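#struct-help
A.M.: can someone run this one for me? Single chain, 125 residues.
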Amino acid sequence: MKNYRITVNGTAYDVVVEELSAGAVPAAAPAAPGPTAAPVAAPAAPAPAASGAEGAVKVAAPMPGKILAIKANAGQAVKRGDVIMILEAMKMENEITAPEDGTIAGINVAVGDSVESGDTLASLN
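D.P.: on it. Structure tokens below:
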């Protein structure tokens, strides 16, 4: 076992490190004096707020970003190229457009949602 003092953002932490051989099971380390770091849980991904049934044509996010505005509603007729929503990525506003003529079957995101590349944003019939 080796003891180390690590300073993170001006706060010192005493840590104990145990070297394990292959197949060894780690032993519980005694509590070290001084401040201890609490484990940080990853934030849960927000569930998309679906507004209707899924259509045959999916409109996917071309890049990761945040939904700034939704310009179309479920049941609304759209033409190819009509703006469905605005996606902010890298501080730029990107128009997400209808890939073909149809009717919006559902909007799968809400304003403020973060999306990843390839996430389904809306669907058309």
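A.M.: thanks! Strands lie at 2-8, 11-17, 57-60, 65-70, 77-78, 83-89, 92-97, 102-107, 114-115, 120-124.
D.P.: also worth noting: Confidence is low (pLDDT under 50) at residues 42-52.
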